[in-house]
User: What shape does this take?
Amino acid sequence: MSPDFDDLVGTDVDPDERDRLRYAHDLLVAAGPLPELSPALDRTPGIEEEAEVVPFFNRRRHAAIAVLAAAVALAVFGGGYLTGHERNSSGFAAEQVIPMEATSAAPPGASASLTLGAKDDAGNWPMLVRVANLEKLPPRGYYALWLTKDGRPVAPCGNFVVAGRTTEIRLNAPYPLGRFDGWVLTLQKPRQHTPGRVLLTTV
Assistant: This one.
């Protein structure tokens, strides 16, 4: 039974407002009651039902399946890793890792390695250079990586500075590497544009 309109609104309402409310009331009465919710919707969102308890099956069978699953996972992920290029934590695909040796001019404990990536379509060789225990330089001083010919630095591959004990830098060699015989890392003083003192070398 629908409630009486006068009981809901009263008689002391403005006539225009009363007419508007009457129209809305008549529409609601004509529409009838709302349909009941389906069982799927008659739950509070975000509250999961209690999970079904499934009894454990034979322990030996369970262990055998677990070992088999682990073996399959190892074959899939391990095989994919071994057949592809080595990929380090920085996401850099390594073709070759080249260690660099410190010279007598390097600070104590200085070390570096050069990870060479695959040559791109334009002929550039991406490189990931890791250095350790190099000194923080004064303003406008920097370190530089060079390709060498006959042991002498002749082709620059990029500059960088360091701020901590270890630094990782992405550089690029836009040259045919077959024309060169190695790399060196030099210390460049402010306004020094020729190769500076060699600190680390692969030759």
Summary: The CA atoms of residues 119 and 180 lie 16 Å apart. Residues 1-43 form one domain. The helical segments are 5-9, 15-31, 59-83. DSSP finds three helices and ten strands in the chain.
